[in-house]
Amino acid sequence: MDSKDVKNLSGMDMGFTQVCLWTLLAFAMTWTTIYVTNMRKKAAKLEDVVAEERRDGGADVIIVGAGVGGSALAYALAKDGRQVHVIERDMRQPERMMGEFMQPGGRLLLSKLGLEDCLKGIDAQIATGVALYKDGKEAVASFPVENNNFPYEPSARSFHNGRFVQRLRQMASSLPNVRLEEGTVKSLIEEKGVVKGVTYKNSSGEETTAFAPLTVVCDGCYSNLRRSLNDSTAEVLSYQVGYISKNCKLEDTGRLQLIMSKPSFTMLYQISSTDVRCVTEIFPGNIPSNADGEMANFFRNTMAPQVPAKLRKIFLKGIDEGAQIKTMPTKRMSATLSEKKGVIVLGDAFNMRHPAIASGMMVLLSDILILRGLLQPLSNLGDTKKISEVIKSFYVIRKPMSATVNTLGNAFSQVLIASTDEAKEAMRQGCYDYLSSGGFRTSGLMALLGGMNPRPLSLIFHLCAITLSSIGQLLSPFPSPLRIWHSLRLFVLSFKMLVPHLKAEGDGRQVHVIERDMRQPERMMGEFMQPGGRLLLSKLGLEDCLEGIDAQIATGLAVYKDGKETEASFPVEDNNNFPYEPNGRSFHNGRFVQRLRQKASSLPKRRLCRTKLNCQLEDPESLKLIMAKPSYVMLYQISSTDVRCVMEIFPGNIPSIANGEMVDYLKNTMAPQVPSKFRKIFLKGIDEGAQIKTMAAKRMEAALSEKKGVIVLGDAFNMRHPAVASGMMVLLSDILILRGLLQPLANLGDANKVSEVIKSFYVIRKPMSATVNTLGNAFSQVLIASTDEAKEAMRQGCYDYLSSGGFRTSGLMAVLGGMNPRPLSLIFHLCAITLSSIGQLLSPFPSPLRIWHSLRLFGEMALPHFWLWTMLVAFVLMWTVFHVSNKRKTMSKLKLEDPSRQERRDGYVDVIIVGAGVGGSALAYALAKDGRRVHVIERDMREPERMMGEVMQPGGRFMLAKLGLQDCLEGIDAQKATGLAVYKDGKEGVLPFPVENNNFPYEPCARSFHNGRFVQRLRQKASSLPNVHVEEGTVKSFIEENGVIKGVIYKNNTCQETTAFAPLAVVCDGCYSNLRRSLVDSTEEVHTYMVGYITRNSRLYDPQSLHLILSRPIVCVMYQISSDEVRCIAEIPADSVPSIANGDMSTFLKKSMAPQLPVKLREIFIKGINDGERMKVVATKSMSAMSSEKKGVIVLGDAFNMRHPIIASGMMVVLSDVLILRHLLKPLGNLANVTEVSEVIKSFNDIRKPMSATANTLGSAFSQVLVASKDEAKEAMRQGCYDYLCSGGFRTSGIMALLGGMNPRPLSLLLHLFAITISSIAHVLSPFPTPLRVWHSLRLFVSAMKMLGHHLKVEGVRQMLSPANAATYHKRYMAATAL
């Protein structure tokens, strides 16, 4: 071959190579194009499928696994309105050996989820504790019954796991929005790190998909999805081997039998009335074979001899009968969060611990309850950012329960292992001795084991105590060198056992607090918490620290200057951006600090000492600020009996306290400047030698430390002048911000990340800190008196601005109260004060001197911040333009869309009712029956759990019948009450409602019941009518035009703000009404507190009487509210309410109240306390009825008029009002006629008087008379009242007819009250009138007349005393109520 051929060949080779390369490149490009196109199509198809499924009412949540966790979560989320799709690999009844024991804490959680019925009908067995056996000894450890602060029956349940799971599945699948499907989930459908759904094989073997915004994986310890979500691996510790002995019963069925055998524990417990579960622990490497009979021989020959003789027969019965022996690994796995979004892992797929303490289900149910609570506010589960925040919060909040159970389970399992090592064996013996020792040791450890007190700190305390107890046993009878060595080894072993578990549990973080003095502080500062501070406190979960310290409500500021007075309240209306009650609290700083310390350290709460100076401000709900000279004076109530007096003095002029100069200065210089109505209180403390404290008012800018690993907070970091009392608010804001920034960090040892957090913290805190610091320092300068005209004008301008009302007062008070912590808002108000002051300086005309002073004032405030003024002017101009244009759009839209013009013509809605309680629901039904279209808006449609409104008097039942609602008392297990049983000093009187000659056209008996059940029946009855629309939502404010209410603005249950229009709005949203203040100026008065609870599974000896015990200090009441439940109530003075949280209330009721009860009632009274029933405390309030000046609105119920609840007449009055209002509105064809509706409201206020005046006066008088007293005159009145009630004849029947609403005539009431007074005077004067008895009689008469005079004045003398008018009113009332 010549060179030419070679050349041709090489050319051919080169061409072939190029063709191949170009072909390969074309193929790669084609394949890439096709692949990308297909991927896009798949993504689009996936989005279309998801969107289509969501449009077709697809699932909100997919749950993988229908075990205990999956079924319980499905039920909980479905009850919240979610669409749930549950996929379970096997729907047959499981046959598991684990999950057969539910601790008391688990039962409580199950009941909170509404699933307690799942333990019924499965032959579950009660377990009250544990029986321990070791080396032939036996001990019993019970779950604590007394002083356990556990609001549920303290007993466990054991059962067949499969039966329980099937009941849960049945409960879940009974809901229409739960789809339960059999299928095997193969994988998760994921897109950009977000899980969109699952791929699964259904029961027919077809592979299909399901989509939902949230997927929950709880498919157990063998989860096939866990590995795709996190890297956590389960560690196998040992194996549980067990079987069931059938047709047998333990000697003590109520206890779990725990035998501390070798190599580890053996357990026997009753899982049905005929089956006993037998379990033992075996370690890897020594597991006998089950197939060839080695396991049965191991049980017979090795384990059975260690089982106590009384249990051995049952233990061997299952083996001899060939029971199926199951082996199951015991695993441990720490909880780890998945980095993928849109998915949550729960149950054994998420977190496992040793099953020695049988608490897995309890942790799982706790997790479900927490997760449900966090998901409830979210309307859109597709918001991955919010869901991610929820999952992070869930991981932190679950720690107290999970960390306690995980650590206890894993530690307990190690302690129970037998060993030849003396140190380990001593630890094992110490654990047995500790559990069997009784007292707080046993009860404390059993409370932890039962989930009744899931606190990690309590667990650590008990584990350390067991360690020390074991060391003490090792060292006895004397500490030889060998025993000391074993003790040291034991101490190290226990530490090695505890620390890894604490480390594994991670965050909640372990915190070490060092304080120089743990005694209660006696500080003068930090005694006032603004509304913003209270909101921050609630966000930290510390709001209950303001309870039980006699903290006082503060609704605003009262400012005094030069004999003038003005009120500046925290804004109630138009504060929609502030989601909390807009008032402050004042208190003893030391008491508050101690409560915080107790909360943080979980120490048992101690009673706080109280210093009683016995004085109270005229208006204790306002902080009194006196603009005195040289600076301000402040007075505020810090407890119900103590008033703090503070004034500012400047350096260089501070009088000496030691030589009395300070006292003289306060008396002679400051006291004359204090308004006369407060001067006596101001001087009282000085005259009584109260300790005078001096404290520097400091200011310090916040500055970051350059050192790493440290953060400075509080007054050590940043101080401002205390004039605005906002130091605690800034500190709590800082804590909340810091907590949020630290939460995502798993390792606080990473100095760089922590440094970044600190820098972020310094920036994020600025809005709150800058606002408060600037306001505090500016306010302090303005309040200083001066001879300089410019400064004095600024001081006067500040006073005028605060007292001007409207947006000026509310805006500045919102800034001051931390309700609107925006620097720009603060600057606006400060500039407005400046301009206002300048305007005052220049009036009545701008002379050269006034102009000069104005320029000086402006220069001092403005020139240093010229750029700030420019920014403010620009902002104001932009805001004005935007606001005016929006206002025009809104007005034109309202004119076009206002239902008052369009929808009302079509008969869309005639009446809006705010509140669907007794009054709102009854009125809705009544008006709808008259053909009106009614829109009811209720903030919470769940069944209420109220302690009041549980008794309906005969008069109330009659009103209910007249409204056509009498059947609402059926089907709620209401109890008949024919009268009253009264007890005093060992005597008893029975007072029936009058049957004969009563002129009452209805059955004369009352009914007692669960308030929530009755309200739900009324709501069902109202919503059954087609022209009633009942909606869940929170009304924020009224829509008002020219003084006429046109409708309401409210947030619906999806948190969207919307409007509703109607010609008439009715407000009946209860005693906590947020609309009342915008309508009337009436204020509620708190008299006492009612504490109550329900004693279950009990029945009074006389269930048809309401039992009233005239005890001390006030009364006790007991009555049957269902066939097996008794309500117990005790009235307590407002200034001495014991704390429920620390057990003081239980002790008070047991030791102070119970001994005063008749023996036949005492057992039931105490039973409820011993059973740990939930106690509620409710304030007893009174408030006079007052009409609103605004038109188009009516107020009803407790939002309108309140009286003392002792005579249980609240529902009767509101039903009477509903009946009257319905009667008056009936003739009106057009409710939009404002004049006619106004006339109706006036008539309504008059016609309602017979019933309301009678009930109000009787309730108030009765409540005052029944208070025990050392005063002979008052005590005689109390005795006279009892004697009159029990005397029989027309006296008893007359007063009972009044009390039952059967004869609602004020004049009749006055006659009976006057007769009681005369009867009491006769009792005082007998057997003969000595001068002292005459004196007491006169005092008694005067006090009775004062009491009656007050009510005559409030209710109207003309209506109550004039016979002619009384008859007229009564006649009109009878006509209105159709008697």
Automatic annotation (TrEMBL):
Pfam families for the chain: NAD_binding_8 (PF13450), SE (PF08491)
EC number: 1.14.14.17
Membrane topology reported for the UniProt record: Multi-pass membrane protein
Subcellular location: Membrane
Reaction equations catalysed: squalene + reduced [NADPH--hemoprotein reductase] + O2 = (S)-2,3-epoxysqualene + oxidized [NADPH--hemoprotein reductase] + H2O + H(+)
Record keywords: FAD, Flavoprotein, Membrane, Oxidoreductase, Transmembrane, Transmembrane helix
Transmembrane segments: 15-36, 57-78, 866-886, 907-928
GO cellular component, one term: membrane
GO molecular function: flavin adenine dinucleotide binding; squalene monooxygenase activity
Protein name: squalene monooxygenase
Residue span, Squalene epoxidase domain: 211-485, 592-852, 1061-1335
Family affiliation: Belongs to the squalene monooxygenase family.
Biological process according to GO: response to hormone; sterol biosynthetic process
Pathway: Terpene metabolism; lanosterol biosynthesis; lanosterol from farnesyl diphosphate: step 2/3
Regions annotated as coiled coil: none
Top-level lineage group: Eukaryota
InterPro entries: FAD/NAD-bd_sf (IPR036188), Squalene_epoxidase (IPR013698), Squalene_monox (IPR040125)
